[in-house]
From TrEMBL:
Alphabetical GO biological process terms: nucleoside triphosphate catabolic process
Organism (species): Marine Group I thaumarchaeote SCGC AAA799-P11
Taxonomic lineage from the root: Archaea, Nitrososphaerota, Marine Group I
Record GO terms (molecular function): nucleoside triphosphate diphosphatase activity
Protein name, UniProt field: DITP-XTP pyrophosphatase protein
Record key words, sorted: Hydrolase
Enzyme kind, highest EC tier: hydrolase
EC number(s) on file: 3.6.1.19
């Protein structure tokens, strides 16, 4: 049976996922891991980089996610 998650962590880095999972576990948030390489644009704007990566991640995952 598939496990249901509240959110998915989209990344190619399992160490980042484990760190996020341990933090979110303390808040009762069940975090799953969706392994994916995301496009990283070059920009001076952290907001622009984050928005692009979030859109790229959602297009691959199609579930509530964080990166």
């Amino acid at each position: 049976m598939r496990k249901l998650y509240d959110l998915y962590f989209v990344s190619s880095n399992s160490h980042k996922y484990k760190e996020a999972k341990s933090i979110l576990d303390s808040f009762g948030i069940n975090l799953g891991f969706f392994k994916s390489n995301l496009e990283e644009i070059q920009s001076n704007s952290l907001k622009e980089i984050a928005e692009k990566k979030a859109k790229d991640a959602f297009s691959k995952c199609k579930k509530p996610m964080i990166h």
